[in-house]
Amino acid sequence: MVCIIDYGIGNIGSIQNMIKKIGYESIVSSDPDVIKKADKLLLPGVGSYDYAMKKLKKTELYDLLNNEVLVKKKPILGICLGMQLMTNGSDEGIEKGFAWVDAYVEKFEISSLKIPHMGWNLIKIEKENQLSKNLYDENRFYFVHSFKVKCSDSDDVLFITNYGDNFVSGFSKNNIYGVQFHPEKSHKFGKKILENFCKMES
Predict the structure, then answer these.
(1) pTM for the full model?
(2) How many CA atoms lie within 13 A of 91 on its CB side?
(3) Are 161 and 108 in contact (CB under 8 A)?
(4) From the candidates 68, 80, 92, 145, which is the catalytic residue?
(5) Is 80 a catalytic residue?
(6) What is the domain extent for residue 17?
(7) Residues 54/20, Cβ–Cβ less than 8 Å
(8) 157-163 and 165-173 beta bridge pairing
(9) How far is residue 85's CA from residue 49's CA, in Å, rounded to a whole number?
(10) Structure confidence by residue, pLDDT tens digits, 125-165
(11) Which of 3, 117, 184, 198 is catalytic?
């Protein structure tokens, strides 16, 4: 069972609907007991970095997620802002992130292109693992973001996308996965990513 973490931020309904379409069950919850019983966790998110981190830190979810991810090694997928929250911090604010992956979130500085980066774009697969396996020859995903992740360790980079310059559109480290794009809005490409995640062994 996949538990979609409900902390008041994120396109939760669309994610749950997409998971249902590919034949898997999920539950949306902020209940610690439900989260502890789940096989996998999904951290959604849209909006402000600081606002999201403050909401998590004001509840027991922050410490609970650290334990589930770092101690119990439960597979977790961060989507969009959810991915960014897994890093050390962001140019968008002053709050510290989970720091599960040694990375930092930077603002797009591209005067010749429209920001936010919004719409369909391609990804380049940098390594094969449980999330990236058996994808299509050409993979297009839907993006909406003004900030990008920069990984300190190139071994953590899973996907690369070009928008003016290359940026990290997906990372992975052990049981931790993050994607900058929205798989729930990305048709067959997003379905494959979510299917790969749902199939993972804990």
Answers:
(1) 0.96
(2) 10
(3) no
(4) 80
(5) yes
(6) 2-199
(7) no
(8) antiparallel
(9) 7
(10) 999 999 999 999 999 999 999 999 999 999 999 999 999 99
(11) 184
Active-site hit among 92, 117, 126, 182: 182
3 is an active site residue? no
| CATH number where 23 lies | 3.40.50.880
145 noted as active-site residue: no
Is the backbone peptide bond immediately before 75 cis, with ω within 30 degrees of 0?
A: no
Total domains, the chain:
1
Per-residue pLDDT of the chain (202 residues; tens, 9 = 90+): 999 999 987 779 899 999 999 999 999 999 999 999 999 999 998 889 999 999 999 888 999 999 999 999 999 999 999 999 999 999 999 999 999 999 999 999 887 899 999 999 999 999 999 999 999 999 999 999 999 999 999 999 999 999 999 999 999 999 999 999 999 999 999 999 999 999 997 6
- H/E element, 17: helix 12-21
